[in-house]
Write a structure and sequence with these properties.
Elements: H1 8-22, E1 25-37, E2 43-48, E3 53-58, E4 75-85, E5 90-100, H2 105-120, E6 137-142, H3 147-159, E7 164-169, H4 177-189, H5 191-194, E8 201-206, H6 220-227, E9 233-237, H7 245-249, E10 252-253, H8 257-264, H9 268-302, H10 309-351, H11 354-397, H12 399-404, E11 409-411, E12 429-434, E13 437-442
Helix pairs in contact: 3-8, 4-6
Length: about 450
């Protein structure tokens, strides 16, 4: 007795059931290659190690956790369902979530958010705002306790004591701290709603710590609050080696909170020294000008001013008289030109008076009507001659002329001219036209 034969589809479905039931959902680690992101939102790639590889599919990839960890060459750990792709008969796994290998969960979240915000353009240098050179008010978002606020205030007091600092105290670590930080940034961005003075620049920061301690500055809500702030923001989180998402979004990153205060506030001592240098230069130029004018005045006193007033005014008076004569001549010439222009305009206006224009156009219409009547009569005469000529030709060449010469024309019952005896049967009624009438006949 022969064994039962399976179709290819039946065999693959048996294998698929065994794989999905026996293997099920598993964690798999390997290297990503040939990553393809379809417009439909589904991603396909190969997961491989040194000895083998397997095809992978992630449906709705952008909604899947850890999708940012997937890139060609990246080592990842994925949680997936094992399955068989029946159309090709190939083994594959369906990715449900992914995470980068060698990075902790926080670091993976950091990289994912960083990539997301970078793709949105929040790190673009073109959107960064420049800092004011001489701020009057500086906003600060940090803890009211600890060394950070004291360091910032000390630097501002030393460098620019005229600057007024305004602090909104927040928690800088722990659950919920990110909401306090974001709310404080929005308050400085909209001071008219918050009831605080408008600041020229904002410092957001805290002291150093672990990635867990700094994590509230890696939250998306804080990044978007900084990006939407209406005033320039300096990020001063941790030490120089610490980087947070806030550093990338802010208009400027400072390695420490103290450095942020130094960047925001100009150095008063340096400004004073520069003002003193400018004052010395200005005094030198002013004294030089005064000395020059004194020398010129002394020269005038020795020369022109020693002469009498009448002699001094003699030449200017002559120049004024000459200019008066020239002005009168020019005025008379201009007046004459205007009178001529007015007279020309009057004559032109008279020639274009509506009554004269209407009379000229009426005469033109009469002439045109006369010419049109003559042309029409000539045209009718020519047409009449042509018709007479055609009548003569028609009488000469038409059938009436042949009838007058003794010929006749025979028509069938339908009025068609007979040109042959074919098709004429017995009993057919015919009509014969002669010069002086018609004869009806029947074919026997």
């Amino acid at each position: 007795m022969s064994a039962k034969t399976l179709s290819v589809t039946q065999l693959l479905r048996r294998i698929k059931n065994v794989v999905e039931i026996e293997v099920g959902e598993v964690w798999v680690e390997g290297e990503v290659s040939n990553l393809k992101k379809q417009a439909s939102g589904h991603w396909y790639f190969t997961l491989k190690d040194d000895s083998a590889q397997i095809q992978c599919a992630m449906f709705g990839a952008r909604k899947r956790e850890g999708n940012a960890a997937l890139a060609d060459g990246a080592k990842v750990r994925v949680f997936a369902e094992t399955s068989i792709y029946e159309a090709r008969g190939s083994l594959q796994i369906i990715i449900l979530r992914a995470e980068a290998v060698g990075l902790g969960d926080l670091q993976a979240r950091f990289e994912a958010l960083k990539r997301k915000l970078q793709e949105e353009g929040l790190f673009d240098p073109s959107r960064k705002k420049s800092l004011p050179r001489f701020p009057r008010n500086i906003g600060i978002v940090t803890s009211e306790t600890g060394a950070v606020i004291q360091d910032i205030l000390n630097v501002l007091g030393r460098r620019a004591p005229w600057i007024k600092p305004y602090l909104i105290a927040v928690r800088v670590q722990g659950k919920g701290a990110e909401h306090e930080i974001a709310a404080a940034i929005r308050a400085f961005s909209r001071p008219e709603e918050s009831g605080i003075p408008r600041c020229d620049v904002l410092i957001v920061g805290r002291g150093g710590g672990s990635i867990e301690d700094l994590w509230c500055f890696n939250e998306e809500i804080v990044a978007r609050a900084i990006a939407g702030c209406s005033i320039p923001v300096i990020s001063a989180v941790g030490h120089e080696v610490d980087f947070t998402i806030a550093d990338f979004v802010a208009d400027l990153r400072a390695p420490t909170p103290s450095a942020a205060a130094e960047i925001a506030a100009p150095d008063g001592a340096e400004l004073k020294a520069r003002l003193e240098v400018l004052q010395r230069r200005m005094n030198q130029k002013c004294f030089g000008k005064i000395t020059q004018w004194q020398a010129q005045l002394s020269a005038l006193r020795r020369g022109v001013l020693q002469r009498s007033g009448e002699r001094l005014l003699r030449e200017p008076v002559m120049r004024i008289d000459t200019m008066r004569d020239r002005l009168q001549t020019q005025m008379q010439n201009r007046l004459s030109q205007l009178q001529q222009k007015i007279e020309h305009t009057r004559i032109t206006h008279k020639a274009h008076h509506p009554v004269l224009v209407i009379e000229r156009r009426t005469e033109n219409i009469r002439q045109l009507a006369k010419r049109m009547n003559m042309a029409a009569m000539q045209h009718l005469t020519n047409k009449e001659r042509q018709i007479q000529h055609l009548q003569t030709v028609l009488r000469t060449l038409g059938p009436e002329s042949s009838l007058q010469r003794g010929y006749s024309i025979t028509f069938d019952a339908n009025g068609q001219v007979l040109r042959s005896r074919e098709g004429i049967g017995k009993g057919a009624r015919l009509t014969t036209r002669l010069a002086d009438g018609e004869i009806s006949s029947v074919v026997e």
